[in-house]
Amino acid sequence: MHDKDLAKNIAQHPQAIIIEKIHTLNNQDKFGYWAFQIVKRKSVDYIKKTKKELVI
Questions:
Q1: How far apart are CA 42 and CA 39, in angstroms?
Q2: Domain spans of the chain?
Q3: Residue pLDDT, tens place only, 23-51
Q4: 42 closest CA partner among 19, 16, 24, 23
């Protein structure tokens, strides 16, 4: 991303979800994978949303 502020804003939402849902993580050894999946899903959601807004 070329816009650092936008990147920070996009990263904040998954961080909040990770903090909110950390109690659901059963195996602490899987934290990295678990957190990555949340960030990946939210990033894809953002891209899809942005593409829809650009098309409209």
A1: 5
A2: 4-55
A3: 999 999 999 999 999 999 998 898 888 87
A4: 16
